[in-house]
Amino acid sequence: MKPLGIISGTVLLQGKGIFAGLREETVETDFGRAAVFCSTAIVFVARHGTDPRRPILPHRINHQANLAAMKKLGVREILGVYSTGALKRRLKPGMLVVPDDYIMPAAGPTIVREKPVHIVPILSAEVRRKWLEAARDCDMDCVDGGIYWQTAGPRFETRAEIGMMSQFADLVGMTMASEAVIAQELEIPFAPLCSVDNYAHGLEEKELTLEKILWHARHNAEAILRILTRYIETENRTAAPALI
User: Fold this and answer.
1) For position 221, what pLDDT does the model report?
2) From CA 84, how far away is CA 143, in angstroms rounded?
3) Are strands 42-46 and 4-8 parallel, antiparallel or unpaired?
4) Which of 128, 163, 177, 237 has a CA-to-CA distance to 230 between 20 and 30 Å?
5) The pLDDT value given to residue 213
């Protein structure tokens, strides 16, 4: 059975649960090298690297190499995990969301070179369904649907920018749309699970700080790990041959 691909930031409890005992590999791709962590069940990529003291900032991530490495290792689908800011006050820090669409105004990365490839951007309905089912199986509330707006980073957004974005989207982040596009170009089913880790700049009077965002991200990491574990267990059970 082909492994599942998982791509997330650096706070996802590396070394615990399904992430324990993974072997590190360096995969050569047409777009450069990618560091991956593998078992028979999963292929994991930490998009910001593995050293929290020297993270790879959003505008410097080699998305093409990361996802091309997953393709090379034969993943059957990709589960993306993201830290996001809420553009709507109804989405509170600590909540989880499975978006159903995204907006990326700036040009993003692509694996397309000479050969013309014109994808119709979508998120996999099947992977979204399985994310939501895994959350329900864990008795966790998870918002079904929402629009993710991707900014270029690494800076946060101005109050004026957030005011504009909030008219069209529900969440803001810096990486998901890039990974969604490349996964689709590689013909790998993909869908995200988003952790709401802060209100976007200007939605509350308190100053937005990186420390506050990281605190919520770490708090949500345990819940995300449980959902991921349930997702993988369900997949493995479904794929297991029936005993006669």
Assistant:
1) 86
2) 14
3) parallel
4) 177
5) 74
Residue 211 lies in a domain: yes
Would you say 224 and 138 are in contact if contact means Cβ atoms under 8 Å apart?
no
At residue 180 the predicted structure's pLDDT band, cuts being 50, 70 and 90, is very high
Least trusted range by pLDDT, from 42-51, 72-81, 185-194: 42-51
Q: Does residue 84 lie within any of the structural domains?
A: yes
Rg of the chain on CA atoms, in Å: 17
Question: Could you tell me how many residues make up the chain?
Answer: 244
| Cβ 181 vs Cβ 207: under 8 Å | no
State residue 239's pLDDT score: 63
Instruction: Give me the domain span that covers residue 184.
Output: 4-239
Which residue type occupies 121? P
Domains of the chain: total: 1
| Bridge-based pairing state of the strands 78-86 and 4-8 | parallel
Provide CB contacts within 8 A for 69, sequence distance 6+: 27, 29, 34, 36, 43, 45
CA dist 148 → 91, 103, 165, 172 (Å) = 13, 6, 10, 6
Contacts of 183 (CB under 8 A, 6+ apart): 67, 78, 189, 190
Enter the tokens of residue 74: 């034969």
Beta strands in the chain (DSSP E): 4-8, 23-29, 32-38, 42-46, 78-86, 96-98, 101-103, 143-144, 147-150, 171-173, 190-199
244 assigned to some structural domain: no
Structure token digits, residue 207: 């100053």
Helix (H, G, I), strand (E, B) or coil at 26: strand
Give pTM, 2 decimals: 0.91
Closest CA to 172 of 180, 182, 164: 164
Which H/E stretch holds residue 157?
A: none
